[in-house]
Write a structure and sequence with these properties.
- The complex is a heterodimer of chains A (445) and B (162).
- Chain A has 445 residues and is α/β, with parallel strands linked by helices.
- In chain A, 40% of the residues lie in helices and 11% in strands.
- Chain A folds into 3 domains: 23-234, NADH-ubiquinone oxidoreductase 51kDa subunit (Rossmann fold), CATH 3.40.50; 243-327, Roll (Ubiquitin-like (UB roll)); 332-428, de novo design (two linked rop proteins).
- In chain A, the strands form 2 sheets. Chain A has a 5-stranded mixed beta sheet. A 4-stranded parallel beta sheet of chain A has the order 3-2-1-4, with helices on both faces.
- Chain B has a 5-stranded mixed beta sheet with strand order 2-3-1-4-5, with helices on one face.
- The chains are: A alpha/beta (445), B alpha+beta (162).
């Protein structure tokens, strides 16, 4: 159950304060004190602390961060790299952007700690191309960190060099996939690599590389400022800390909220601190709990915590924290069509099931939405999705990377939970929602 | 003689920019600078002229085909000269639930331009999620975000694009 003590945001605490993004402001809040503490530890001890903290990756997969760090070979003669994944592009996700804009030093401190622990001397922050302003804020913070002797030849006086560069993407969702990100950092098109070998062993330029998400790295300083045990206790048994969730869709107060891991979807949507419910007269029909890749949930499945393990039990995922709410006046076929179109647009074209299957799904859904569907189309749609990635469970995809899974999971889950609505489109030979398929806020003015 | 690609001022910026980009990578990995180098070219010329891509490739010691391969993979690179203002409208799910389709239709009518097309002044495109789902609907004008758009706010914005 949710704890009764007052909740204290640790990642978003300074958002909204004037100049929260500056080094001066960050230092006033105790910024870079965690790095000082970490620099007194042996690198291996830092990794142990992060393991103890139960910090899990906030980019989508929820992989334990300390464990990921421990996969980097200690005796490799090659240079090691840290690549920061700031390619935030999963529909429904908009949290990392605010860290970059409003508190970039928190991430930079995490970068410094990670680099020292891993023996990394070069870090690339890969920021999606569309994030001009967040990239400018990040670069300004990096410049401050160099001037303050945090980055550069000596890290806070210690004989340890760290250089840090911003690299901007150029518009490709696939580059958020870690191996595509590495290809892109190498100056190529973003075609994912087969794993294994994993990036921790063979990553950027063939060298050991850790790829971590922005929020993950921004969480790292807290593990050292107040201790791994404290951090672990903030969360659940298997998942330490707090987490940022992004609430969007048909709710009264969309936005990024930092929550206790025990917070349920129902609380997020209806609580006064968070979404404040739906417009008068409307009810929830469907919720995507972890970015548009995550299997959709129905209205009777929302008393579930926004946490990795709890959502896994529901055959869906916490993913990147993007919670999208659809009300009872929105059309499930239309919503799924838009999601399917996204994956068709963003498929990199490398694997046949995804390259051919994603536009096929999109065409079938458009046909259904326009009332031209035949009864056999639902079976066909399901087969096309299964040929990309069957479900359940999650993770059976027939493609090199998880974009295939991401494209098939919405189709499977919408068909499972809202089949009657798909059938109605076929029987009525039109969309039952007419020219208002987007729910209560769909009329723009 | 064909007109030179760069003015002397642009040439200076390009040379300095390329040198800075290359310095971020190991000496035998110059080609890693492809994305930033193409961005630099686009910032100077507004698009990626073929002779510019050949020049980038030469500096990064790869074939021109490599530059074109990268340029054609990523949607933010312009292989044709766009309008003065590139308007990218997000119509993904969270924005659609806040009226993005209607906003796009309004823009098409107001600019007299179907999505996907360009004229001297404008390039109008549908784009994928811009990470403004909490402040939907949204669009970018030349890579600047504009969020929580109403018809009144959009009209005000368009009036400034002259």
């Amino acid at each position: 159950m949710a704890s009764t003590t007052a909740f204290e945001p640790i990642i978003s605490g300074a958002w909204g304060q004037p100049k929260s993004w500056t080094l001066e402001h960050y230092r006033k809040r105790g910024g870079y004190e965690a790095l000082k503490k970490a620099l007194e530890l042996a690198p291996a001890a830092i990794i142990d602390e992060v393991k103890k903290s139960n910090l899990r990756g906030r980019g989508g997969a929820g992989f334990p961060t300390g464990l990921k760090w421990s996969f980097v070979p200690k005796d490799s003669p090659k240079p090691k790299y840290l690549a920061v994944n700031a390619d935030e592009s999963e529909p429904g996700t908009f949290k990392d952007r605010y860290i970059l804009e409003l508190d970039p030093h928190m991430m930079l401190e995490g970068i410094a700690i990670a680099s020292y622990a891993l023996g990394v001397h070069t870090c690339y922050i890969y920021i999606r191309g569309e994030f001009k302003f967040p990239a400018e804020r990040t670069q300004a913070a990096i410049n401050e960190a160099y001037a303050a002797g945090i980055f550069g030849k000596k890290m806070m006086g210690k004989d340890f060099q760290l250089d840090c560069y911003v690299v901007r993407g150029a518009g490709a969702y696939i580059c958020g996939e870690e191996t595509a990100l590495l290809e892109s950092l190498e100056g190529k098109k973003g075609w994912p690599r087969l794993k294994p070998p994993f990036p921790a062993v063979v990553g950027l330029f063939g060298c050991p590389t850790v790829v971590n998400n922005v929020e993950t790295l921004a969480s790292v300083p807290h593990v050292f400022s107040r201790g791994a045990d404290w951090y672990a206790k903030l969360g659940t048994d298997k998942s330490g800390g707090t987490r940022l969730v992004c609430l969007s869709g048909t709710v009264n107060r969309p936005g990024v909220y930092e929550v206790d891991m025990n917070t349920t979807i129902t609380q997020l949507i209806f609580d006064d601190k968070f979404g404040r419910g739906l417009p008068a007269g409307r009810k929830v029909k469907a919720v995507i709990p972890g970015g548009s890749s995550a299997p959709v949930l129905g209205a009777d499945e929302l008393d579930v915590a926004l946490e990795f393990e709890a959502l896994k039990v529901k055959q869906t995922m916490a993913g990147s924290g993007g919670v999208i709410v659809m009300d009872d006046s929105s059309c499930m076929v239309r919503c799924l069509w838009r999601v399917a179109r996204f994956y068709a647009e963003e498929s990199c074209g490398q694997c046949t099931p995804c390259r051919e299957g994603t536009p096929w799904q999109t065409r079938l859904l458009r046909k259904l939405e326009e009332g031209r569907g035949e009864p056999s189309d639902l079976e066909l749609l399901s087969n096309v999705a299964s040929s990309i990635a069957p479900y359940p469970p999650i993770g059976l995809g027939n493609t090199i990377c998880a974009l295939g899974d991401a494209a098939a999971l919405p189709t499977h889950s919408f068909l499972m939970r809202f089949r009657a609505e798909f059938e109605a489109h076929i029987h009525e030979k039109k969309c039952p929602f007419g020219d208002k398929p987007w729910g209560a806020f769909g009329d723009w003015s | 003689m064909a007109e030179p690609l760069f003015t002397p001022e642009e040439q200076k910026k390009f040379d300095a920019g390329i040198a800075e980009i290359i310095s971020h990578y190991p000496p035998d990995r110059k080609s890693a600078g492809m994305l930033p180098a193409l961005r630099l070219l686009q910032e100077l010329k507004g698009w990626l002229p073929p002779e510019g891509m050949r020049l980038v490739a030469r500096h990064l010691e790869v074939t021109p085909e490599r530059a074109y391969e990268v340029a054609s993979f990523y949607v933010m690179y312009h292989l044709k000269k766009p309008g003065k203002y590139v308007i990218d409208v997000c119509t993904n799910l969270s924005c659609a639930l806040w009226g993005a389709e209607k906003m796009l239709a309004y823009l098409e009518q107001k600019l007299g331009l179907p999505a996907g097309e360009s004229n001297e002044m404008f390039t109008l495109r549908e784009t994928e999620c811009l990470a403004s789902c909490g402040t939907a609907p949204c669009l970018q004008v030349n890579e600047e975000h504009h969020e929580s758009l109403t018809k009144a706010k959009l009209d005000e914005l368009l009036a400034k694009l002259t």
